[in-house]
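Service request form, structural biology core

Requester: graduate student, group of Dr. S.
Request type: structure prediction, single chain
Budget code: on file
Notes: please return the result as structure tokens.

Sequence provided:
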Amino acid sequence: MHTLSRDTIKQLVELSHSPGLMLSCYVNLKVQGASERPGILKIKHAASLLKQSIPESLSERTEFEQNMNRIIKALDDPSLHNNHAIAIFTAKQRDQFMIVPLGMPILTELVNSDRPYLVPLLQCHFAQQREYLGLTFDNDQARIFLANAGTVKLLKHWHSDVPTKQHSSGDRGAWSQSNIASRREEMLDRHQKEMIDGFSKALQEHPQAGILLLGHEVEVTQLKNKLPPHLSGRLVHTGVCNNMDSEKSQSKTILEIVRKQNVLHAQSLLKELKRRQSLKTSCAVGPADVLAALDTGRLTQKGSLLLGPDPKEDAFLCTSCRHLALDEVKQCPRCGSGCKSCNLWEEILLRAFRHQWNVVPVDGSEGLTKSGFIAMLLEV
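Core staff response, request fulfilled:
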């Protein structure tokens, strides 16, 4: 089993250079409200249709059946079902087989080609690049999590010594009520300082992370007001979290918040795109304009590439200088070398992956439909 990482994606890209056919399978394993796994049923149905499209006389049909048998065997493994989704890549004739668990929803798809189909995997990779540091706390304990759209990881958990009750002077002998209250405030200040220090250290390692504060409303407000500028400037969400004893429940809550924050981020970029379009400045809209901007090096790491669902459109890639053309060409118009067909979305995402550009996957209903599902915000 492989994790979704840059190394895994690089390994899969290398598989593209091998001969023979590869079957790429993406399956949603967790569907809300479903007692069974409809994603697996969809894959089996897609496999049946694909098999019928390949003549029995061709060796490709045998290859397909062998690869599909490996996928079905993997999907029957109960240990995989704890994942939100999985990607499986198999080419039995090359002795290649990879499983990549995915922590977020995807479209269930089955693609039979001479190379792995990487668009959904790359979209998951980019969706998980936005990081968040989440703090769940009350006066008794605190946890700091590192989260993205697919994973939540506990970084630190500690308990405080803040008393849960102010005892009367009769309970504590010579201690007066004011002394007890003063001591409690002192310990509460210490607890809050420890949370701020923990956040500061985590932010040093993840400087672009957004900050989430979750707890009881009054305590969240108190801590929010004490955050130093370098933390308050990264604060993107405050909310209520009542179940302080359950790490699992808190992780689930944080994951839901992170996904909503990513949607809000995409919506804000779409709003900015609309503004720039009206001014006809610092943006590229549609496949042709985006490719022109990429060719001239106008997208930098401070810009953003907005990408909707894969329309499964072909493009033509120069095998030498890697010029990318929308219209079919056999020879590169730039260097004269040969060209090969490729998936337009996949080649753009792979370029973004190599150059570490900022890619924001956008749902098809979120405003890119009139832009060919692709647009670019350029550095101003």
